[in-house]
């Protein structure tokens, strides 16, 4: 990664996205397009495993989906079943060995496996399995499930249900055998996972419903917490491997990770963000001339803020959609202005204006400082920053890449201190109650359909082992 890439690498990132197709003649091609729709969930690597009913085929690589797969690669991925994965490395680090789906070979056949999430007892399970003779081929916690499966008796479904009882944390698993696909979600539903139909007898599964739209699939329902689904050529069966607890969908899926055209358990992401913007306007009003959203995930909240406050919404910042990782090392002066290669202020819109700048979150604060500076350089008279999520004060151990307190500016600074650090005229965050009300899971989905807010208030939905709480991000 170049220095310019590091300059941009200060927003949060999610671990990955998963996609699967069962019983469709264009399984590999559909999975390619599904992964392309989920590219925002991971840009470090991608892979596809297909089955032709007799054997499993694999292709994977580091980088973006369109750079990894050629038409020839897709043609070589024979079969009517497929699973795919896009990855952002948090647990286990990067490298081709950790790019998924993994493909395992044993005397009982082949198995493809991919995973979204993070296991909080991975260290303990790896220690146990290694003492029992397991040899791990990757540094990813996802591999743990394959080793657990080989230690269980009975058929695949029974072995999977038994193995999942050992695992704690956030996970959405897809597993592929020659003529079977298995889907499993953690008992708290920390990660989104949806089922769909395609063609007469085909099934699809994806981290986000936006992946269904691009391939013409029809949404059926979301996978339930603690559910294991088996799909074969006879159809689909569902069982529970654990008693469902109080649901804790990750709040950051609605705030930042998911695409605005996705629905998570029936709640549209754009509408949820817009609602949070409306509540933010009520909780933190300010006199201003225009409302500007940070592209892209701040735009929905900015629209809501503008509508509620009756302050005009303007496109005051534009994102360069073609900026990518550069192989040309920039000069020091260009590095210092690096954010301008990714975002640009619209001078004629913000000049001499009192601007309300809406963003989805503040993690480290460096990006916010650059954007405030950019607006001032473009002539903004005042810059009032409003954030459509609460202060992120606590690390995430479930697959989001801020796992230590020293990465979080709100863990060590007050709101007034952060305001001074980023150079804003004022700063305010939506409250935790405002966020949960804006997303509206309890009111729309009923009791016990809540969300995880641990990064805001430290109330973690699972037990955390000491090695997890003290782990340094660099060794994850």
From TrEMBL:
SUPFAM superfamilies: N-terminal nucleophile aminohydrolases (Ntn hydrolases) (SSF56235), PRTase-like (SSF53271). This is Amidophosphoribosyltransferase. In the C-terminal section; belongs to the purine/pyrimidine phosphoribosyltransferase family. Its EC number is 2.4.2.14. Gene3D superfamilies: 3.40.50.2020, Glutamine Phosphoribosylpyrophosphate, subunit 1, domain 1. Keywords: 4Fe-4S, Glutamine amidotransferase, Glycosyltransferase, Iron, Iron-sulfur, Magnesium, Metal-binding, Purine biosynthesis, Transferase. Coiled coil: none annotated. Its cofactor is [4Fe-4S] cluster; Mg(2+). Pathway: Purine metabolism; IMP biosynthesis via de novo pathway; N(1)-(5-phospho-D-ribosyl)glycinamide from 5-phospho-alpha-D-ribose 1-diphosphate: step 1/2. PROSITE patterns: GATASE_TYPE_2 (PS51278). Binds 1 [4Fe-4S] cluster per subunit. Binds 1 Mg(2+) ion per subunit. Catalyzes the formation of phosphoribosylamine from phosphoribosylpyrophosphate (PRPP) and glutamine. The active site is at 16 (nucleophile). Mg(2+) binds at residues 297, 359-360. InterPro entries: GATase_2_dom (IPR017932), Ntn_hydrolases_N (IPR029055), PRTase-like (IPR029057), PRTase_dom (IPR000836), PurF (IPR005854), PurF_N (IPR035584). Residues 16-234 form the Glutamine amidotransferase type-2 domain.
């Amino acid at each position: 990664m170049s220095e310019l890439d590091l300059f941009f690498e200060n927003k949060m990132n999610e671990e990955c996205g998963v996609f699967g197709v069962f019983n469709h003649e264009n399984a590999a091609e559909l999975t390619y397009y599904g992964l392309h729709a989920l590219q925002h969930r991971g840009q470090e690597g991608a892979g596809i495993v297909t089955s032709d009913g007799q054997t499993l085929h694999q292709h994977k690589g580091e980088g973006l989906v369109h750079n990894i797969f050629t038409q020839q690669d897709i043609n070589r991925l024979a079969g009517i079943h497929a699973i795919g994965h896009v990855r952002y490395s948090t647990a286990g680090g990067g490298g081709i060995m950790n790019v998924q789906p993994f493909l395992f070979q044993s005397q009982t056949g082949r198995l493809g496996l991919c995973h979204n999430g993070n296991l909080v007892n991975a260290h303990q399970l790896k220690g146990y399995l290694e003492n029992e003779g397991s040899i791990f081929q990757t540094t990813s916690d996802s591999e743990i499930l394959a080793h657990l499966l080989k230690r269980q008796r009975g058929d695949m479904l029974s072995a999977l249900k038994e193995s999942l009882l050992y695992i704690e944390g956030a996970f959405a698993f897809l597993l592929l055998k020659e003529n079977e696909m298995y889907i499993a979600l953690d008992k708290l539903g920390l990660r989104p996972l949806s089922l769909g139909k395609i063609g007469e007898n085909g099934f699809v599964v994806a981290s986000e419903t936006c992946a269904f739209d691009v391939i013409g699939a029809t949404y059926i329902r979301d996978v339930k917490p603690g559910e294991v689904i088996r799909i074969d050529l006879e159809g689909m069966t569902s069982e529970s491997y654990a008693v469902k607890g109080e649901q804790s969908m990750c709040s950051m899926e609605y705030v930042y990770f998911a695409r605005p055209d996705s629905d998570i358990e029936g709640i549209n992401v754009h509408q949820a963000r817009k609602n949070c913007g409306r509540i933010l306007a009520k909780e933190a009003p300010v006199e201003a001339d225009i409302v500007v959203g940070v592209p892209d995930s701040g735009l929905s909240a900015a629209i809501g803020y503008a509508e509620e406050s009756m302050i005009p919404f303007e496109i005051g910042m534009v994102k360069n959609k073609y900026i990518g990782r550069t192989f040309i090392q920039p000069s020091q002066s260009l590095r210092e202005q690096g954010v301008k290669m990714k975002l640009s202020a619209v001078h004629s819109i913000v000049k001499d204006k009192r601007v309300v700048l809406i963003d989805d979150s503040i993690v480290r604060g460096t990006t916010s400082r650059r954007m405030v500076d950019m607006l001032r350089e473009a002539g903004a008279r005042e810059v009032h920053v409003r954030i459509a999520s609460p202060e992120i004060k606590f690390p995430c151990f479930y697959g989001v890449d801020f796992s230590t307190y020293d990465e979080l500016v709100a863990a060590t600074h007050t709101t007034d201190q952060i305001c001074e650090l980023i150079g804003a005229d004022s700063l305010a965050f939506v409250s935790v109650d405002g966020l949960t009300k804006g997303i509206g899971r309890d009111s729309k989905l009923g009791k016990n359909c809540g969300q995880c807010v641990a990064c805001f208030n430290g109330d973690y939905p699972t037990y955390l082992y000491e090695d997890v709480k003290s782990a340094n991000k660099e060794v994850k």
